[in-house]
Design brief:
Oligomer: single chain
Shape: globular
Number of strands: 3
Radius of gyration: 14 Å
Largest sheet: 3 strands, antiparallel
Number of domains: 1
């Protein structure tokens, strides 16, 4: 599946989740729902993944934390307004 196909699935699921749960919940709730929905579709997904950062000659293991990584192709950031 291409990045664009995965992105469309993610956006559609986010809309579905928001319609069902409504606004005002913690980001972690929407993130857990998204991970659940993606797994139901058989799509490889991982959440709260540490992404190392290299600075000069050192590796900083906690340089960045990706909220959700979909099929090793799409990184999603949970953000609630």
């Amino acid at each position: 599946m291409t990045e664009n196909e995965l992105a469309k699935i993610v956006v559609d699921l986010c809309i579905k989740i928001h319609r069902v749960l409504g606004p005002g919940l913690l980001e972690s709730v929407y993130e857990a729902a998204l991970v659940y929905e993606l797994k139901k579709l058989g799509i490889k997904v991982s959440s709260q993944v540490g992404v190392p950062l290299t600075y000069d000659e050192i590796s900083i293991e906690t340089g960045f934390r990706a909220d959700v990584i979909v099929d090793d192709k799409v990184i999603c950031r949970a953000q609630v307004h």
